[in-house]
Model the fold of this input.
Amino acid sequence: MRLLLHWILTALAVWIVAHVVPGIRVSDPVAALIAAAAIGLANATIGFVLKILTFPLTILTLGLFWFVINALMLELAANFVRGFYVRDFVAAFFGAIVLSIVSSILQWLVIPRRKRS
Done:
């Protein structure tokens, strides 16, 4: 249930990003759901490997290089999902930043915190 809620909130975040960031478009809610799944899959596989390989560069840039990796994963997902379009790397870069912020806020608002024992 929690995974489904995360997926829906990420799709809502993708939908919001498409309306806020110029250069990113989503044709319909189904495309947003598929894009959210593709972004999650890309981040969990290729993104994970890239984050490990570029860890020294990430340390040198104080973590800012992760936004570059997230932008690349956003562009990769756009290449595989029909109805999800990212114009260029600049749009993907700002889209990745806005997506992480919006997704974090939505999850903070909707998902209850687990009680610590």
Remarks:
- The longest strand covers residues 24-26.
- The CA atoms of residues 7 and 36 lie 7 Å apart.
- Helices lie at 2-20, 29-53, 55-60, 65-80, 89-110.
